[in-house]
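Narrative of accomplishments. A recurring question from our advisory board has been how the design workflow behaves on a single, concrete structure rather than in aggregate. To address it, we present the structure tokens for one chain from the evaluation set, followed by the sequence designed for it. No filtering or post-editing was applied between the two.
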């Protein structure tokens, strides 16, 4: 299991601490081993098909990174963005993320997430890429 464990770890490391089930399968590893790692607490399930290695590349804004990985193309907004920019003393109870109005999105299992649906013209205005640890996250600028 140790050699297999290292092989799975390398898959997660290449994805900055994240891996999808298809990444594991493409590496020639059966997904049953993911269940064992979940039981042992080595990985966390973000949503169906997306996992994060516990302790790898963690930041103080881990929830924001998890949600942006779970909902690619979504833009972190409202209280979550304000908290990132240190413009509020409130700690968000959930991660707020905006998506296009016509897009269908599956909420991640964790962390708690609030999805806002914006019209396309409003959705793209003010979006920036922010670096959080080794990951790039889409987030609205301070003004928005």
């Amino acid at each position: 299991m140790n050699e297999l464990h290292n092989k799975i770890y390398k898959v997660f490391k290449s994805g900055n601490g994240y891996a999808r089930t298809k990444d594991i399968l493409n590496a020639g590893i059966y997904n049953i081993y993911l269940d064992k790692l979940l039981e042992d607490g080595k990985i966390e399930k973000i949503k169906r098909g997306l996992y994060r290695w516990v302790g790898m590349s963690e930041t103080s804004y881990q929830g924001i990174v998890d949600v942006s990985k779970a909902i690619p193309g979504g833009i972190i907004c409202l209280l979550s963005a304000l908290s990132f920019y240190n413009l509020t003393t409130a700690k968000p109870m959930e991660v707020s993320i905006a998506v296009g109005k016509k897009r269908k999105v599956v909420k991640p299992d964790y962390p708690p997430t609030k999805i806002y649906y914006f019209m396309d013209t409003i959705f793209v205005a003010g979006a920036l890429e922010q670096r959080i640890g080794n990951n790039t996250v889409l987030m609205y600028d301070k003004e928005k």
